[in-house]
Amino acid sequence: MALFMIVLVAYLIGSIPSGVVLTRLAGAGDVRQQGSGNIGATNVYRVAGKRLGVLTLVADMLKGLIPLLVLGLLGFSGEGVQTLAAIALFAGHCYPVYLGFKGGKGVATALGIYLYLSPPAVGIALLVFAAMLWRWRYVSLASISAASVIPFLVYGFERSELLFLATLVIASFVIYRHRSNIERLRRGTENRFNF
């Protein structure tokens, strides 16, 4: 029962749509009706400005990080519980009950989860992200590249098959939810990030 409640609460926390809440509070309208229609930080950045974009990024990251920290402080530090909670947090962001199960792509929330599970792996993955973004100026390509390497980095640093599988599942979904971006990259019509 306790495990079920942990997973349920993690899912509900992950479902909180930071981008939608912040843009509405700021009077910038419904981000789902603007730009790409995505609720994530990149679209918020494009349609509502840098400040709200950064706040959305931080909020989405923290909703992946803080619940896992709290679980650990409460004594639920086993890899099994942490793994299930991490996947529930991520699933909540991608398929939020509050928005009819239509959510974001999960990059920032996954970042928060990875940051808890393996900070050194995140450091290297962020370098991959930054290098790809700097060279090509596609946030989607940078996100996909970082997602592709992080499960192997996590395994390299943590030596845990369970954490490897959890991060592999999350990374695979991050890439899957970028499938429209992948198609636009293939066609050469993907939007470049403006520094």
Give a verbal description of the structure.
- With 195 residues, the chain is mostly helical.
- The chain has one domain.
- The protein has helices at residues 2-14, 18-25, 41-48, 50-73, 79-94, 107-117, 119-136, 139-158, 161-176, 179-187.
- The termini are far apart.
Sketch the topology as an H/E string, one letter per element.
Answer: HHHHHHHHHH
What is the count of DSSP helices, taking H or I runs of 4+ residues? Answer: 10
- Are there runs of 5+ residues with pLDDT below 50, and where? none
Main sheet record: none
Q: Tell the overall outline.
A: globular
Mean pLDDT: 95
Give helix % range: over 70%
Q: What class, by secondary structure content?
A: mainly alpha
The separation of the N and C termini measures 48 Å
Gyration radius (Cα, Å) is 16 Å
Q: What portion of residues belong to β-strands?
A: under 5%
Number of domains: 1
- Tell me how many strands there are: 0
